[in-house]
Specification:
Length: about 230
């Protein structure tokens, strides 16, 4: 998926916008959701830059390595629903890899980030996807972000390979650039819409199970054998 997007700040804990989906159609009942989102990927792929651009609309040309993990929060409105996003930005260095499960446990959604100019970072995404599915199952909502799309001429990961892999694992693929503020709003909005849909689906299943009444059909009594005298 590929389109330009703008950013926005979180101010005074208020929910941003009347309708972040842009459709302008309010649902009949306003719902509130709280989702945990984790960003995973190798170091230097731009995870922190993506989050800072999305939450604070800031971009730092200098790379600052994330130590272990950092946490940011953003509140938005999506189709009349109030959504609080708890976003965890994890460290990508190999020495912190073992700590990953601590941060993505109980996550509702994940963004797997790679650098389009670094083939190895794309291969590492595949490892993260396997780990996520092993721990959280197929219920977790996934997006894959091919970051640094402003460096298209230096690309080493083909669009065909990236998008084919994303489709295979049930993820949606986006090309993003924190530097140009490209496609970041769309990325987070799409993931949020997925999480809302998944949450409502789970809720309906649970409600359905509570409302199911199991009725055991009584079996008709077996006829008693007719006793016969010795004379028949």
């Amino acid at each position: 998926m590929d389109s330009a997007g703008g950013g926005g700040d979180e101010r005074s804990g208020a929910f941003e916008g009347d309708d972040a989906s842009g459709g302008g159609q309010q649902q009949q009942q306003t719902r509130s959701f709280s989702f945990k989102v984790v960003l995973l990927g190798e170091g230097c792929v731009g995870k922190t830059s993506l989050v800072l651009r999305y939450v604070e609309d800031k971009f730092n040309e200098r790379h600052i390595s994330t130590v272990q993990a950092s946490f940011l929060q953003k509140k938005i409105n999506v189709s009349g629903n109030r959504v609080t996003q708890a976003i965890w930005d994890t460290a990508g260095q190999e020495k912190f890899h073992a700590l990953g499960p601590i941060y993505y446990r109980h996550s509702n959604g994940a963004i797997l980030v790679y650098d389009i100019t670094d083939k190895d970072s794309f291969e590492k995404v595949k490892i993260w996807v396997k780990e996520l599915k092993k721990m959280l199952g197929n219920e977790i909502c996934l997006c894959i972000a091919g970051n640094k799309s402003d460096l298209e001429r230096e690309r080493t990961v083909s669009t065909e390979e990236a998008e084919s892999y994303a489709a295979m694992v049930g993820a949606t693929h986006f090309y993003t650039s924190a530097k140009l503020n490209h496609n970041i709003e769309e990325l987070f909005l799409h993931l949020t819409e997925q999480m809302i849909t998944s949450s409502l689906g789970t809720e309906r299943k649970q409600t359905g199970r509570r409302n199911v009444v199991v009725v055991e059909q009584e079996q008709p009594p077996s006829p008693r054998p007719t006793s016969k005298g010795c004379c028949g």
